Amino acid sequence: MAITVKASLGKERYYTEVVAGENILITDEPVDKGGGNKGFNPFEILATSLASCTAATLRMYIDRKEWSVETINVEVELENFPLTKRAIFKRDITFEGTILDEEQIKRLRAIADACPIHKILTNDIEILTKFS
């Protein structure tokens, strides 16, 4: 399944409109990096992809199992180390409105790792670029 997004950046420093289908997202850089801080920065978008995909994947599984879980919270911290070409995602998952047993938590851990964005980030990645 291929998806396409288009990012357009005009003369306003780093203010970028990203379009995916009928949806628009604004990205920007913080003020201390020369931007206007009017949207998520690219690193936040990357961490958001993992957090939101994890939450949605867990919700699908929990609903299918008919477990009573009011809220799924997924917090992702991304640390980037460009000099060593390493990035670390720290993912903290909590549940509200329920008490889950050890077996349920074990299964949910496996389901979280099966989220499509987690799989992409832990697989081999290739970026093909062309200028036209």
From TrEMBL:
<dbReference type="InterPro" id="IPR003718">
    <property type="entry name" value="OsmC/Ohr_fam"/>
</dbReference>
<dbReference type="InterPro" id="IPR036102">
    <property type="entry name" value="OsmC/Ohrsf"/>
</dbReference>
<protein>
    <submittedName>
        <fullName>OsmC family protein</fullName>
    </submittedName>
</protein>
<dbReference type="Pfam" id="PF02566">
    <property type="entry name" value="OsmC"/>
</dbReference>
<dbReference type="InterPro" id="IPR015946">
    <property type="entry name" value="KH_dom-like_a/b"/>
</dbReference>
